[in-house]
Amino acid sequence: ATVQEAAPGAGTLRVRYCLPDPAPLVSIIIATRDGYTLLRDCIDSIHARTDYAQFEIVVVDNGSEDPDVLAYLQELVAKKNVRVLRDARPFNYSALNNAAARVARGQLLCLMNNDVQVITPGWLQEMASQAMRPEIGIVGCRLWYPDDTIQHAGIILGIGGVAGNAHHRFRREQAGYFSRATLVQNYSAVTAACAVVRSDVYWQVGGFDESLPVAFNDVDLCLRIRDAGYRNLWTPYAELYHLESASRGLEDTPAKKARFAADTEFMICRYGDALLYDPAYNPNLALRMQDYTLAHPPRIERIGITPAAL
Predict the structure, then answer these.
(1) How far apart are CA 203 and CA 187, in angstroms?
(2) Distance of CA 32 to the CA centre of its chain
């Protein structure tokens, strides 16, 4: 590894880890249904802005009917590093990704939504080099909304009931709480909108839990990886834009709200009070906000830790 200043005058450091030689193959898995512009922009950005050569793209087509999408998928098949799997089952993000992971050739899996676009050419090298460290489980990246505010900079357990994004909507010039919006660090969970994990680690914990078809499947996967003894990691040096929920939409119908409530109940039943004990988040900080606001009253009293015990 090499060590350098994270940014001139910031007083913080960045460690760059070496990749093995030859570099590992990364299988980028993208589940999609229609959404021609989203899918095209996503894949075009990978090919145009990725300086890591050892990757394949596995597109899981979940019953697309749009003629433009079908024609584009045929074009993709002609590319040497793109494969298309047809899977028309009712949408289940976990099941679609598990199916693709079973046929992926890569030592590393990159789980990716079809509504992201690459910004930094070194994104995949950074994530792969971190994911190849034997102690690291799953690696997340920094995702931006199109207006250049943060969509994802790590996930904190307990926010919003189950989990929420750290530094949500912070601007590029904001370093965040103790500069945590700009530094590589461990988090309990990261989003699978773009995450890299070794294939053996993914299957060691059984992949995604298919009883979580949409919400919290990535948080659940991360927690099972963490509980298997690995340290999950977030890096700000892999950056992509994310049009959050552009494909599946918002939780704005009675059916979607009911499903989200069921997924929430699933997570609370499985993890219980562990959602209040995130080791990457101080118990003096609030769970009602995503900006590291102080809890009032302090949560340490609610979870049974007294100041004397600290």
Answers:
(1) 21
(2) 17
Exposure class string for 210-242: b at 16+ Cβ within 10 A, else e: bebbebbbbbbbbbbbbeeebbbbbbbbbbbbb
Is the Cβ–Cβ distance between 298 and 288 less than 8 Å? no
Alpha-carbon distance 42 to 74, whole Å?
A: 16
| Structure tokens that stand for 73 in this block | 């998928």
Mean pLDDT of 286-294: 89
Reported pTM = 0.93
Calculate the alpha carbon distances from 120 to 19, 51, 125, 239, 301 in Å: 18, 9, 10, 6, 43
CB proximity list for 97: less than 8 A, separation 6 or greater: 29, 31, 60, 111, 192, 207, 208
Instruction: Give residue-wise pLDDT tens across range 146-195.
Output: 999 999 999 999 998 999 999 999 999 999 999 999 999 999 999 999 99
Contact in structure between 9 and 15 (CB atoms under 8 Å)? no
Query: In whole angstroms, how large is the CA radius of gyration of the chain?
Result: 19
Cα torsion at 279, 285, 288, 290 (round to 10°)? -80
The four Cα atoms 151, 154, 158, 159 give a dihedral, to 10 degrees, of: -20
pLDDT digits (tens, 9 = 90+) for 32-70: 999 999 999 999 999 999 999 999 999 999 999 999 999
Stretch (H or E) spanning 224: helix 217-227
Cα–Cα distances in angstroms (integers) from residue 215 to residues 6, 76, 87, 212, 258, in the given order: 34, 29, 20, 6, 12
